[in-house]
Write a structure and sequence with these properties.
It is a single chain. The chain is α+β, with helices and mostly antiparallel strands. The chain has a single domain (about 5-100), classed as Beta-grasp domain (Ubiquitin-like (UB roll), Roll). About 15% of the residues lie in helices and about 25% in strands. Strand 1 (about 5-10) and strand 2 form a beta hairpin. The longest helix is centred in the first third of the chain and has 7 residues, at about 25-30. FE2/S2 (inorganic) cluster binds near residues 26, 41, 45 and 48.
């Protein structure tokens, strides 16, 4: 039962969610109605509506960035070194404890 915390930057609201059974962290957020994560393209890396900042990362996690993800992150609002596309972060056993901040779209 890996728990992932999404903090919505705009309101400070925290969503502590069980990621079990979801393919990616984008799916966890969308299926639990986390504001400002829309996942419009379904994970094809063409919309940027799943942009998050990684605030705390468990040891051994995360999947490395592909060149396509890096390209997409160049066009999201206010990218930083902590930026990731949640659709490119698969759920696995080591995801527990991950904290993500959700910027405005
Ligand atoms: S869901 Fe579209 S880029 Fe992640």
């Amino acid at each position: 039962m890996p728990e992932v915390t999404f903090t919505v930057e705009e309101t400070g609201t925290e969503f502590v969610l069980d990621a079990t059974g979801h393919a990616t962290l984008m799916h966890v957020a969308v299926e639990n109605d986390v504001p400002n994560i829309e996942g419009e393209c379904g994970g094809d890396m063409s919309c940027g509506t799943c942009h998050v900042y990684v605030e705390r990362m468990p040891v051994g996690y995360l999947a490395p960035q592909s060149s396509d993800e890096i390209d997409m992150l160049e066009v999201v609002n206010e990218p930083t070194d902590a930026s990731r596309l949640a659709c490119q972060l698969p759920v696995n056993e080591s995801v527990g404890g991950l904290r993500l901040r959700v910027p405005k779209l």
